[in-house]
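Input/output pair, single chain:
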Amino acid sequence: MLKPKRKITKKEIRRDPLLETIHRGEQFYTANRKVITYAGGGLAAMVVIGLLILSSGRSSRTAADAVMSRALVSYRGEDFSAAVADFDILINEYPRTPAGNEAQYYLGQTLLHQGSEEEAKTRLEGYVASVGNTFLAVGALQTLAELAFKDGEYSEAASYFEKAAHVSDVPTVSNQNFINAALAAVKADNYEEAKRLLDVIPQDEARFSFQTRIDEVTAMVNILSSHSNN
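Output:
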């Protein structure tokens, strides 16, 4: 037998910004039913609720930005416990705001400082999946690559570095990540993959400053590859 659905109380509505907005809209509609009906009935009511939701969204972003500012002050001051508390607030209470999304990245980096590597990786991977701020996504991918490299997961590290190279819209950052990916592939004894990663570096002006390093890694790959074939 199905249990009857529990009604949401007014107190609970006040705790949920979206439900609170809709509740205010309904109250406004009830108080001004005759005017709204005259103006266009349900359509006018929906316009009122829509405007209230839009206003609520702006208010949420403003509140989230204030929490983010406080969290970043704590993070940069190495007060990591306070930073984690505020990043948690952003993720749980403002998930639909840019600050709420970016909080996953900063929480991941903060957890690394606290030594919680596995949880940090989960947060960083979650942020990468959201494809938010490109600059932060590159930072998250590079951190994941470095963690994988440290753990001896060289193929995984190469994959993360390559993803960072593709995500970045800064040519020098992209090129360095391609080189790092190739070096990780070398550590994995995957010389053909290392060659491919070096070959995909664009032939443009940004490559010029990396050409010496590219040539050095290419030569190393060729030597190691020839030895492995003998």
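The radius of gyration is 26 Å. Confidence is low (pLDDT under 50) at residues 8-25, 35-45, 47-56.
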